[in-house]
Amino acid sequence: MFDRIAGRYDRANQWLSFGLHHRWRAAAVARSGARPGDSVLDVATGTGDLALAFARRVAPGGKVVGVDFVPRMIELARAKSARRGARVEYGLADALALPFANATFDIASIAFGIRNVDDPARGLAEMARVLRPGGRVVVLEFGQPTGVLFASLYRLYSRAVMPLAGRILTGEADAYRYLPETAERFPSAERFLEVLRGAAGFARTEALILTGGVAYVYVGTLPGTARPAGR
């Protein structure tokens, strides 16, 4: 499914989110606490938007690696990074079996991908495994909006408008029925924090609500001391 929509994925994201997905990714990067010199792994990187946002934040001296299990997405991410002159390494990888040693990165992120992992808790644990002491897992994911009126309007939009618009923009209505259906079922807010806490021994977890609950940023911080600034 993701391979089929890859070529029109960015355009669909822009239209269907009314451009808000860029602000949501910026909020995730800001909440991550990323600094120049940090090493970041972006899991389920797609066409690389979050990886590129991190690359800007950790320069100079930082390193960003983006992985995905869809070859076409990786091709598009590499092309996008080349056009923007960004230094991001990309490769194919399964979120449940990351090909990196323990304690390799300062931050491991995933945007709108954790609900697509067969075992989300195991995926989160795998992201935590590759982090150094004091490292952070950062998750940007859809949620369920709060407020009766807003929640009702959002359900109408996601169930009726999104599949039709997705079919027009990408030719794949099924993909844009899948998105709201999985987002509705997936735990958000405190329920997701419980999943996060159960996945690894985080010293601290937090959630940031975005756009009335349409999306959330979650951060889990491992025990230990983070990398000193500038190292």
**What is the residue-mean pLDDT, rounded to a whole number?**
87
The total of helices stands at 9
In the predicted model, the low-confidence regions spanning at least 5 consecutive residues are none
Gyration radius from CA atoms, angstroms: 17 Å
Helix/strand order = HHHEHEHEEHEHHHEE
Number of domains: 1
Strand fraction: 15-25%
Distance between the termini: 41 Å
The shape is: globular
Structural class: alpha/beta
Reported by name, the CATH topology is: Rossmann fold
Tally of extended strands?
A: 7
| Main sheet record | 7 strands, mixed
**From the coordinates shown, what is the CATH architecture?**
3-Layer(aba) Sandwich
Helix fraction?
Answer: 40-55%
Question: Taking strands numbered 1, 2, ... along the chain, how are they ordered across the largest sheet?
Answer: 3-2-1-4-5-7-6
The top-level CATH class is: Alpha Beta
- According to CATH, the homologous superfamily is Vaccinia Virus protein VP39
SSE diagram, text form:
Elements: H1 2-5, H2 9-16, H3 20-32, E1 39-43, H4 49-58, E2 63-68, H5 71-84, E3 89-92, E4 105-111, H6 120-129, E5 131-142, H7 148-170, H8 173-185, H9 190-199, E6 204-210, E7 215-221
Parallel strand pairs: 1-2, 1-4, 2-3, 4-5
Antiparallel strand pairs: 5-7, 6-7
Helix pairs in contact: 2-7, 3-4, 6-9, 7-8
Description of the molecule:
The chain is 45% helix and 21% strand. With 231 residues, it is an alpha/beta fold. Strands 3-2-1-4-5-7-6 form a 7-stranded mixed beta sheet, with helices on both faces.
